[in-house]
Amino acid sequence: MRTLCASTLIGEFFVIGFAGLVAMKDPDLATSTVWTVSGIAMFLCVALCGVVTRPGGVAFGWALQVALIASGFVVPTMFFLGAVFTALWWASVHYGRKIDEAKARFAADRAGSSTPDAA
After folding, report:
1. CB under 8 A, 24+ apart: contacts of 89-94
2. pLDDT tens for residues 17-40?
């Protein structure tokens, strides 16, 4: 699960950076505010890569997805991109867990079959 979720989060890192560039062109927003918010969100994406498998990591990832969609109020394209990344986040969590379960079953089967017969 970690690999799939981290890949999604790194993609979000770049999208948030590009959205910051777009938001910077808004005359109503201060450049320092845009880059403070974008920088924090980008840092959270990278930090979450390391803690996604810990308790609360996936829930924090969902909160990040909600924030990404909400950023559409500043950069309207982010409504669409936020929805796309939310779907990718769901798929990463869902299929990542299935892959982890399959790996665990495979490892258990392999460990069980590697014991030599007492002949």
Report:
1. 89/5, 89/8, 89/61, 89/62, 89/65, 91/4, 92/1, 92/4, 92/5, 92/7, 92/8, 93/1, 93/4, 93/5, 93/58, 93/61
2. 999 999 999 999 999 999 999 999
